[in-house]
């Protein structure tokens, strides 16, 4: 009798061979695989990692695990344990979180993806909490700023906003790591904060107002980006895509509109019809403009803070 994780591996391969799964098709998240097969999360994780190592599936950021194309070929053999480093552990952890969300991140899963013993990763990081902070700092380090910076406070803040948005879209889990009420000290996040604060400082506001403006600016980016991570988590829990979930809500929405108690909501839904797609990138651009237009109006009004 073979190990349960190999049963999962064989089943996925059979589905691909029969044509039930085709290149590009998305596989269920690891948590859903564990529930479907009645196995531990670590067993499901080992099965998916084995499929990745064999080149059967690949992990796609913000998509999940999909069937690989025939030309993809097997992945390189895992590095020997002597080749491990903190940077490699962090990078593999980022890959897992990008594809499946922070909820799927475990030290055992990281070790399985690296092809090493479960306790090996602990030689380089103190535990998951420490690891997540290292991941966040590494992610924030991926993009920097030109020297000298753009001319004018608005151009400078636009650059900071779009840089942070790019990083949060690349790594949706980032929005979960740095709550406003309990900020964490991350050197590379401080680089982005310094750029924003330097732009705001040039406007002559008092220190409290400058901090208020910076917190609002960052929370705008973070607050919008958190929806991308929540969608990853929702797909992992429900197994439904965003479109499938919306289709399932339609009867309830119709019932709500038919009550006549929400005429503005009903008129909006009727006017939009099937033509509205929730585009986070478009909403970010609109929100960024409104933020900066509001700051420009505040400057013109004399720069009054709270």
Indicate the topology.
Layout: H1 4-18, H2 30-37, H3 41-53, E1 57-60, E2 64-67, H4 86-100, H5 107-114, H6 128-140, H7 153-170, H8 187-201, H9 207-238, H10 242-258, H11 263-272, H12 280-300
Antiparallel strand pairs: 1-2
Helix pairs in contact: 1-3, 2-3, 3-5, 4-5, 4-6, 6-8, 7-8, 7-9, 8-9, 9-12
Describe this structure in words.
Keywords: DNA-binding, Transcription, Transcription regulation. Residues 83-143 form the HTH tetR-type domain. The protein has a two-stranded antiparallel ribbon with strand order 1-2. The protein is 60% helix and 3% strand. Helix 6 (128-140) packs across helix 8 and helix 7 (153-170) runs parallel beside helix 9. The chain is mostly helical. The chain folds into three domains: 1-77, Arc Repressor Mutant, subunit A, CATH 1.10.10; 79-140, Homeodomain-like (Arc Repressor Mutant, subunit A, Orthogonal Bundle), CATH 1.10.10.60; 153-240 and 290-300, no CATH class.
């Amino acid at each position: 009798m073979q190990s349960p994780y190999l049963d999962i591996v064989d089943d996925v391969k059979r589905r691909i061979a029969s044509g039930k799964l085709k290149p590009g098709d998305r596989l269920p998240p690891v948590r859903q695989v564990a529930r479907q097969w009645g196995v531990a999360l670590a067993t499901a994780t080992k099965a998916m990692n084995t499929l990745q190592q064999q080149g059967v599936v690949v992990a796609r950021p913000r998509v999940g695990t999909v069937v690989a194309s025939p030309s993809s070929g097997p992945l390189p053999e895992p590095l020997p344990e002597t080749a491990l480093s903190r940077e490699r552990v962090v990078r593999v952890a980022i890959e897992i979180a990008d594809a499946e969300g922070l909820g799927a991140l475990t030290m055992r899963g990281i070790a399985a993806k690296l092809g090493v013993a479960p306790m090996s990763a602990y030689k380089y990081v103190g535990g998951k909490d420490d690891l997540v902070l290292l991941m966040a700092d590494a992610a924030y380090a991926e993009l920097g700023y030109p020297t000298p910076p753009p001319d004018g406070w608005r151009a400078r803040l636009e650059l900071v906003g779009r840089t942070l948005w790019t990083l949060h879209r690349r790594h949706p889990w980032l929005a979960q790591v740095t709550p406003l009420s309990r900020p964490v000290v991350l050197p590379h996040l401080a680089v982005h904060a310094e750029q924003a604060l330097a732009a705001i400082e040039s406007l002559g506001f008092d220190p409290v107002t400058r901090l208020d403006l910076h917190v609002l600016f960052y929370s705008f980016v973070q607050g919008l980006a958190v929806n991308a991570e929540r969608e990853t988590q929702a797909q992992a829990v429900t197994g439904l895509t965003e479109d499938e979930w919306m289709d399932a809500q339609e009867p309830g929405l119709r019932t709500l509109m038919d009550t006549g108690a929400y005429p503005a909501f009903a008129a909006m839904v009727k006017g939009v019809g099937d033509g509205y797609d929730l585009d986070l990138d478009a909403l970010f651009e609109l929100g960024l403009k409104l933020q900066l237009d509001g700051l420009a109006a505040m400057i013109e009004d004399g720069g009054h803070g709270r």
